[in-house]
Recover the amino acids of this structure.
């Protein structure tokens, strides 16, 4: 039987392009990013090559290299040339959605795991045949609007199978890497509190102000005077009200970030306001893949899978978090045992190889 074709259209953020030399050929740029990209979606792209012909596109990267007009032509030419049986997209971009929607013969599926409303669901349904998500709120909204959907938790590639000597040599700083924004007010409060009480290693995207009016003014500044505003951020003059700016470092991703995470004993995670009790975010799987002891907020969805003091440490309040960090910093052998069990549970039940089987089952249902 002739192998079918899947085109993966994958999301990237601007900071992921900083290590790319725009003067290199597109083939070399994609090769380098493929080596660095350790996300579950890129893992699927590489591992499905034995069962399918796979091709991929990074539209946001292409936009930087080719320009704001040409990147759509580049994607359209790729679709026309490759002629996939299925398009899988993890990027939500109105222009890209409309382009994909034009292809009526091909089957199209989009991955969504961020805050949206019913109007957005209907817009996606107009351009895609299927929706995939790990978020119960999104899946229920899709079901309500008769948008065929599939549930699949995300994952991470396995990065560390470790021994106690390795763990005890790791850095004692509390590690956090991720984003801030209007849907992360609780996350900001916990990070600021942790900074007051412990040493933090922080790599944050979208440092925000404590007040919405200041965020609005900063966004206007960035639009009118982008170079000057970025300079103010670089010099730690902005944001005015966020003390994390003094310790924040540039965000990294993929192999670089995971290698760095493997050098830390402890990682902190706070779900977004939208994700809380609806799904499990990426930081959980990254921390467990790297063998960290994870301190994470209470999450009814997550509680059903990961057990307290067996795989992770849950905290209920700021004071509770402080007590638990202090305890496990003093009792590192106990911390190691929980981190080791969390890592092993991840290996057995939640690494990318496991998720790939779930994805294959979904593919069979829609083929």
């Amino acid at each position: 039987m002739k192998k079918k074709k899947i085109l993966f259209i994958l999301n990237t953020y601007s900071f992921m392009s900083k290590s790319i030399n725009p003067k290199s050929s597109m083939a070399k740029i994609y090769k380098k990013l493929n080596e660095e990209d350790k996300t579950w979606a890129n893992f699927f792209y590489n591992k499905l090559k034995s069962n399918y012909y796979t091709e991929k596109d990074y539209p946001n990267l292409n936009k930087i290299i080719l320009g704001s007009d040409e990147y759509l032509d580049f994607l359209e030419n790729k679709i026309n040339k490759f002629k996939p049986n299925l398009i899988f997209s993890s990027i939500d971009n109105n222009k890209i959605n409309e382009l994909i929607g034009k292809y009526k013969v091909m089957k199209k599926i989009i991955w969504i795991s961020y805050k949206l409303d019913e109007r957005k669901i209907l817009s996606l349904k107009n351009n895609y045949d299927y929706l995939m998500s790990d978020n119960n709120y999104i899946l229920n909204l899709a079901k309500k609007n008769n948008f065929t959907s599939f549930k699949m938790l995300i994952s991470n590639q396995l990065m560390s199978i470790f021994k106690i000597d390795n763990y005890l040599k790791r850095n004692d700083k509390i590690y956090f890497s991720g984003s801030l924004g209007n849907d992360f007010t609780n996350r900001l409060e916990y990070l600021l509190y942790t900074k007051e009480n412990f040493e933090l290693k922080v790599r944050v995207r979208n440092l925000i102000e404590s007040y919405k009016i200041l965020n609005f003014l900063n966004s206007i500044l960035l639009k009118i005077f982008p170079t000057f505003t970025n300079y103010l951020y670089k010099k730690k003059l902005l944001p005015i009200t966020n003390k994390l700016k003094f310790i924040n470092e540039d965000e990294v991703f993929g192999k670089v970030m995971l290698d760095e995470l493997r050098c830390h004993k402890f990682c902190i995670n706070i779900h977004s306001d939208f994700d809380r009790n609806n799904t499990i975010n990426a930081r959980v799987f990254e921390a467990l893949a790297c063998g960290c002891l994870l301190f994470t907020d209470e999450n009814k969805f997550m509680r059903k899978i990961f057990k307290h003091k067996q795989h992770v440490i849950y905290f209920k309040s700021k004071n509770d978090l402080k007590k638990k960090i202090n305890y496990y910093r003093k009792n590192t052998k106990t911390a190691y045992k929980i981190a080791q069990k969390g890592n092993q549970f991840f290996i057995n039940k939640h690494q990318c190889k496991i998720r790939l089987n779930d994805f294959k089952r979904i593919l069979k249902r829609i083929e």
Q: What stands out?
A: The first helix runs from residue 26 to 36. The chain has a mean pLDDT of 94. The chain has two domains: 5-155+351-366, 164-207+242-349.
